């Protein structure tokens, strides 16, 4: 009898353990899927005004359309979300278009041979069609053939190779073949150095374009997966799998470092040639600023590419440690030096307006704030306000610069999570919104949002969206409100945030 009870107890224990593991794995998977959905959200905020009845009324916003994502009959909508967010539909490329180019290529080969230079353009057009169709293997084969014909006819290094390399990078990236992308980007830089003289304006343009390609690669490869639990699994199992999320994000950072170097080289070339009023100099400085800022959070980006500004605080559960990490970030000193150069350019340029000069000084203060140096930020904001008064800016300009109605969330030089910029959507593009949340919150003199309360929402079951909105507001500091040169707390900011899923 004793043995019977022991076997029964062992059997029950195993069953309980099995049930526990199944529930735990389901919970983790569900959580990861929900995070993946929420990472693809966009928040658009508008100011709310109180009427005499106390009800909240929204300001008029162009292009806003409310549309239910899940339909009116769905209960517990955020429990029946699709497993992944909707993917863009590929264009419908007709077989006739592909057949027409294939026929033209066959005719050219028959008349002029397999290495006719006239084949190159047709091969590129056909590769582009396959690329748009999502058939990247065929596209790569055609780009490689076009490259071979180009080398035979025009030599090893020719400007005509540039669109071929760009096409290869795009298809390799779509296939997540990061080693080949890396190889093609290195060759693109090498070809640029061969084609342009050192220090020439042509080289500046080429370096800027290559850096932009690197940043595009960084953005795409960083978001290959958003599941942190998958990263932990690959850490335990090593880095052998080419599709490992950590591997993809490490590759993304390599592209980021290359972009940073190329932007710096382009800026140095312009400065050495004393082209301080070159139309692209300020643009390059801001792009360089973005790269050094992101590179400073490389560890957090690998773990969570969306909310990297708060991931260290959450994972370590030590606010003081996170403040120390942010203040000693290697990007801080480089960022301050970048803004000092920007201010110098603006002072030298006679066409710069007073508002532009003051705005740049405010952005310098923002940089101090983002990296956690509140005292330095406070001093710089005060200097910017004093400078604005000295220049006798209009009351309208003073309000827009120092106390705008809609809060300004930082940083401005890189895309924030759950924003239009994150998905390269312009402010003028109309979106079909899934719903909205009305919230109130305060911003203290250090730019931190607090006291976040949900006042109303279009969907009573949108609790996960509300949680994400709170995280969105707390993720990064806001620009503090400045009255008479003093940083003040602003209470009872009431906003309506429309949301949709990209």
Notes on the structure:
With 502 residues, the chain is an alpha+beta fold. Among the domains are: 1-31; 51-78 and 407-502, TolA/TonB C-terminal domain (2-Layer Sandwich), CATH 3.30.2420. It contains 18 helices and nine strands. Strands 2-1-9-5-6 form a five-stranded antiparallel sheet. Strands 3-4 form a two-stranded parallel sheet. A hairpin with a 2-residue loop joins strand 7 and strand 8. Helix 3 runs antiparallel to helix 4, helix 3 (119-133) runs parallel beside helix 5 and helix 9 (245-272) runs antiparallel to helix 10. Residues 4-9, 17-33, 51-92, 225-243 and 313-318 have low confidence and may be disordered.
**CATH architecture field of the domain at 51-78 and 407-502:** 2-Layer Sandwich
Q: Averaging pLDDT over every residue, what do you get?
A: 77
Weakly predicted, low-confidence segments? 4-9, 17-33, 51-92, 225-243, 313-318
Structural class: alpha+beta
Note the run of SSEs as H and E.
HEEEHHHHHHHHHHHHHHHHEEEHEEE
Number of helices in the DSSP assignment: 18
- Computed over alpha carbons, the radius of gyration is 27 Å
CATH topology of the domain at 51-78 and 407-502, by name, is TolA/TonB C-terminal domain
User: How would you sum up the major sheet?
Assistant: 5 strands, antiparallel
CATH C-level class of the domain at 51-78 and 407-502: Alpha Beta
Shape label: globular
CATH H level, superfamily name of the domain at 51-78 and 407-502: TonB
Strand order in the sheet with the most strands: 2-1-9-5-6
Helix content: 55-70%
Question: What is the end-to-end distance?
Answer: 63 Å
- β-sheet strand percentage: 5-15%
Count the strands?
Answer: 9
